[in-house]
Amino acid sequence: MRHAVVVGIDGSAQSAAAARWAAEEAGRTGRGLRMVHVADADGGAPARTGRQAARLPESVAAIRDRIAAARPELEIACERMAGSPAYVLAAAGERDGLLVLGSRGRGGVAGLLAGSVGLRTAAHARCPVVLVRAGYDGAAGAGGEIVVGVQGDRPCDAVLGFAFDQAARVGAVLRAVEARTLSAGPYVTQAPLDQQAIRESLVADRLVHLQDALSRWREKFPDVPARAEVASGGATEALLEASRGASLVVLGRRAPGHPMAAPRLGAVARDVLHHSRCPVAVVPHE
Predict the structure, then answer these.
(1) In this structure, what DSSP letter does residue 199 have?
(2) Do residues 66 and 155 share a domain?
(3) What domain range includes position 35?
(4) Which stretches are transmembrane (predicted)?
(5) What's the CA gap between 163 and 130, in Å, rounded?
(6) Is residue 103 in a domain?
């Protein structure tokens, strides 16, 4: 199946929620839905992969059947593959350009909202990875914002482009959030009121840079209402607060600068994946 949204399923409630999100995305974009169940859950080094003739587990087949019954218009394929889940799923998503996973699969540690397979896959995949928690009700974008975390004077085009595209598809407001620890500087020795005025000036300056970064994307997506926000404090706290009313949080993941460097997620991305109130998309970029 070509031009499909790929979703990893293992029979868990989290993967069922991911399948619902993926089915909605497939319907919005006119693509098929490709469900992938990886038989080997050792999470080790890359293994030879391939389709297996063995039947799907009943819990996996049940998810497939529920999605097929709810979305009869979709072309759906479901396959069982062998290998290390993180590598198999990352490769499957790379072929089609988008991968959706549950935020914790079977065997996850209690309290760890993003399982090790999801974290490894999001760190290795060369395509955007969306992680969805159990409880997702199949109403992507309904009444919620698309929140995108930005950093630096030149936010990455791949991250902003994905966020604007999602907002356009679901008719959502895009909310770009940059978090800064805004110190007034060691040169400030006057009253606290003066320090507050300097912090406000720094926020205004950062807001101008952020508005400039969004301007080109506003031109490409004129129907997407876009808001810029500079939050004083930590990025994790700002993004988690924003996730309370959002339908999706979009984060960037920097690709390794050296071909031998190990892919990894930053601390902010890990924390947001663990605790976000809504699905989270991790978008790799150079």
Answers:
(1) H
(2) no
(3) 4-132
(4) none
(5) 12
(6) yes
